[in-house]
């Protein structure tokens, strides 16, 4: 039986099967060795995610091998700007991450929970693609706020001893990350998706889930003996 | 609980989560309303698929709402050319399709089985991208053979009274289908993937599985009341 990977997160998870998306890339990479289950909820913060976690995972089936938990981009929206009602205070964000982790581990003790920090924010991009009419001239998300949530996420991961991806830091190591990885200052371009895909592949590898280590589901065509193909499919 | 769509087929299914792939596009389309489960086995014909069907579906979980069965491109390989050992005679191909259908319906009586015919073959493309060294100057697959298998597939679908997608005929209704839809004479370009994606969406709609008819998994962000967000998540 193939192991399962569950992707739990906000819009950046929900849209991860778009062209060039990181979720689709994972499903492609593990096409013969794992099932990728999408549980992305656009606009959700950790407060809302915690409230719905049991319902979100209801139909996800047996214990997954790993779950990515990727929230914070909405929690980090500023409380006094247009996305104010998505904001969650930093200390509650940390508590919620711990609670989501506990929920997942109680349900599936063997599952590895991987925390992903919010990505950096390109404030210029956010002003160019505002969510509301008549932008105030101030972005509803800032890179500074995203960075504070990213650090808080990393701290929770270290405290819990679980793998994490510090996407906020990682992306900013590349030149022109603002336009090259973010199409609207927040959501990913195909190159941005690629960065996260590679980070998730690395994190999975770190917990023993890689193309090299996972068994292939049914014989590969290259292993089928042309002279006696059906023999390859004996149990 | 979200309904599940299982994609059972050969390489064109296995690679359906590549960039612009039809499987990824389905997962994206139904990101909030259905789970797409990939069961693609590169190189497999219906004889091999029938042999492994029980094992392939083992970890697929509860009854899916629909299963696409998309084989024939390998069955239709010519018996006297380089892919000879993938060939399956036309009447056995039909028997195998019936048996795969029976197997799926016995396992999951409520699942809708959708048969997909092999795509057309661009013989020039096959000669440009041969699978073996030193091409013989003759393609290992021909459009005529693929067409015979497509007709046979449609006949089985009509006999069983199940939905089908006559991809062989559909693709050839477009100008320049050879290069525009097929990247190596057999496998799909992004535009070819798009054609199949749209056909599958139509077929699913025909059996009541559409964005309009399927419930959304958890409240949409646009339905969350900014003044009392948590209220939206009450059961």
From TrEMBL, chains A, B:
Keywords: Hydrolase
Pfam families on file: Lipase_GDSL_2
GO molecular function, one term: hydrolase activity
SGNH hydrolase-type esterase domain span: 7-195
Organism in which the protein naturally occurs: Ananas comosus (Pineapple)
Name used for this protein in its record: GDSL esterase/lipase At5g45920 isoform X2
Alphabetized InterPro entries for the sequence: Iah1-like, SGNH_hydro, SGNH_hydro_sf
Family to which the UniProt record says this protein belongs: Belongs to the 'GDSL' lipolytic enzyme family.
């Amino acid at each position: 039986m193939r192991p399962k990977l569950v992707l739990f997160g906000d819009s950046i998870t929900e849209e991860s099967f778009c062209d060039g998306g990181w979720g689709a890339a994972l499903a492609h990479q593990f096409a013969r060795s794992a099932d990728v289950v999408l549980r992305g909820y656009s606009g959700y913060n950790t407060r809302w995610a915690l409230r719905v976690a049991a319902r979100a995972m209801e139909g996800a089936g047996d214990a997954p091998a790993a779950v990515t938990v990727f929230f914070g981009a909405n929690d980090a929206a500023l409380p006094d700007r247009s996305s104010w009602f998505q904001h969650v205070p930093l200390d509650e964000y940390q508590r919620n991450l711990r609670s989501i982790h506990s929920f997942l581990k109680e349900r599936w003790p063997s599952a590895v929970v991987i925390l992903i920090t919010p990505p950096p924010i390109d404030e210029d991009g956010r002003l160019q693609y505002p969510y509301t009419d008549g932008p105030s001239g101030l972005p509803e998300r800032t890179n500074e706020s995203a960075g504070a949530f990213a650090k808080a996420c990393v701290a929770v991961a270290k405290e819990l001893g679980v793998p994490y991806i510090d996407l906020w830091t990682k992306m900013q190591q590349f030149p022109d990350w603002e336009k090259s990885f973010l199409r609207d200052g927040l959501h990913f371009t195909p190159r941005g998706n690629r960065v996260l895909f590679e980070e998730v592949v690395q994190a999975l590898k770190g917990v023993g889930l890689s193309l090299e280590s996972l068994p292939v589901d049914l014989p590969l065509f290259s292993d089928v003996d042309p002279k006696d193909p059906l023999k390859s499919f004996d149990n």
